[in-house]
Amino acid sequence: MSTEKQEGFENEKPLASEVMYHELFDLNPQPMWVYDVETYRILDVNEAAVRNYGYTREEFLTMTILALRPQEDVPAVLQSVELVRQHTRLYTSGFYRHSRKNGEVIDVLIQSNIVYMQGRKAELVLSTDVTTWVASERERRASENKFKAIFDNTTDAIVLCDDHGCCVDMNEATLRLLGYQSAELQGMHIDDFLQLPQGIPFHVVWKNFLNGEILNGLMKIARKNGSHITGSFNAKPNILPGMHMCVITDVTERLEKKRELMESERRFKALVQEGADLIAIVDKRGNYMFVSESSHPILGIRPEEFIGKNAFDWIHPDDREAVLALFLTISEHRQIKTEPYRFMDGAGTYRWITTTATNMSDDPAVGGVVANSRDITDAVEKARALLVSNERYRQQNERLREIAWTQSHVVRAPLTRLMGLADLLHSGDCGGMPLETVLSLIRSSAGELDEVIREIVHKADKVQNDDE
Fold first, then answer.
1. Where, by residue number, does the polypeptide cross the bilayer (predicted)?
2. What is the model's pTM?
3. pLDDT at residue 75 is higher than 90
4. Whole-number mean pLDDT of the chain?
């Protein structure tokens, strides 16, 4: 209120309009002031403005309205006042920023109207501090913008439904996932694309969802083109009154890869755990890190008995050096293959095995040398038996050749003499040789032949006995 009006209250009885002014202006709980439209100077100010802005009444009356604005906002004030100057009656309102005496910038809602004081054009201003509301509104808008950014840009499908399960909104990912246009999905019942197990009614599932009993899981989804996918869903009822949200991720490919992995693991188990070969993983020092279950049926040693122990402790001392020397080259050659060597089994006897070792230390899933070993004891014993048999037959053949040579050479000499002497006796002409001499030669040749025959029989008997 101006000084003149204050003096009027002191010297004479105030008018009814002045009392109303006093009540509406000075006693108003909202900050108010009047300023001169031409000079911007503040003409009057109420107590609420003094309390809210921190200036005294005297300080207010020496200020212009430009002092209540941050410096960067002054051009907007000048433009607004220029608009007021062009009208005789004008009500305006809007959101602005004001500065308190302590430098704090606040958000205010300004409502103003043109008034006249002592014939001068002025504007009555009512200021409402909305700093808290503006901050809350900014947070709300930021939250909405975040949700919109997520809603519009996430790769997961987001569907919003009403209480009846009808689609009211969806993002682009939903359209891509289901293959529909937005207009086609608007109002569509989600039961039209959800494939529930046979015998389970949708209304039961929907009721359980609204009660918070079903919030996530897997479901079959029918696309517009008739194909089916598997979706992993996370749902939340009543994100707003009567509004329910479901986020769907297409896990069809992931489940297929998981199925392939499980099949691969089953094949691995069949090959490694139940196979005829002994599979092991050792570190670069030969210490066992993993041993397949086949170690027990093959060697009579359970896998856990190997873990942490060195493989070379089981190798026969006569074979150990050669196998170790070959193993030490594994860093140079990714794969090595051993000659047959002896490996101690659970009973303390040695089995013949051969090993193919592959260096997979650089593979994080393995982290060591994979040793694939095969028990060849039976094959080695059969090979040895064959060598013994071949040697026996070789010796037999050698004796038979000797017998044959005897028959063809040693027997021939006395037999030839006997045949010649027999011819002499048969002809009756012994060439002047006495008969006794001829008979003596016959007995000598016959004895020699008998000796040869006996030797042949002896050797033949020996060959037969050796064969048996």
1. none
2. 0.46
3. yes
4. 85
Do both 189 and 103 map to the same domain? no
Q: Report, as an integer, the average pLDDT of 141-150.
A: 86
Q: Using DSSP, state whether 21 is helix, strand or coil.
A: helix
**Burial class of residue 426 (count of CB atoms within 10 Å of its CB; 0-12, 13-18, 19+):** exposed
The answer to whether the CB of 399 falls within 8 A of the CB of 462 is yes
Extract the tokens encoding 275.
Answer: 């196979």
369 Cα distance to chain centroid: 24
Q: Domain tally for the chain?
A: 4
**pLDDT of residue 413 exceeding 50:** yes
Q: Please say if the pLDDT value at position 67 is more than 90.
A: yes
For residue 329, which amino acid is it?
T
At what angle are helices 435-467 and 412-427 packed, to 10 degrees? 150
Q: What is the DSSP string of 40-108?
A: -BEEEE-HHHHHHH---HHHHHT-BGGGGS-GGGHHHHHHHHHHHHT-SS-EEEEEEEEE-TTS-EEEE
CATH at 291: 3.30.450.20
What would the two tokens of residue 323 be?
A: 């196998």
- Non-local CB neighbours of 48 within 8 Å, separated by 6+ positions: 28, 29, 30, 31, 32
Quick one: what percent of the chain has pLDDT higher than 70? 87
- Let me know: does 298 contact 342? Beta carbons within 8 Å: no
State how far the Cα of 207 lies from the Cα of 211, in Å rounded to an integer: 6
* Domain end call among 134, 164, 191: 134
Cα 452 to the center of its chain, rounded Å: 89
Measure Cα distances from 331 to 17, 363, 371 in Å: 105, 14, 14
Element (H, E) at 444: helix 435-467
- Provide the token pair at 35: 């300023």
CA distances from 373 to 54, 247, 340, 370 (A): 91, 52, 10, 10
Show the tokens assigned to 349: 């006897």
Q: What is the C-alpha radius of gyration for the chain, rounded to an integer number of angstroms?
A: 58
Q: Cβ distance 396 to 467 under 8 Å?
A: yes
Highest mean pLDDT among 54-68, 136-150, 266-280, 394-408: 54-68
Which residue among 341, 375, 409 closes a domain? 375
Q: Which domain holds residue 93?
A: 3-134
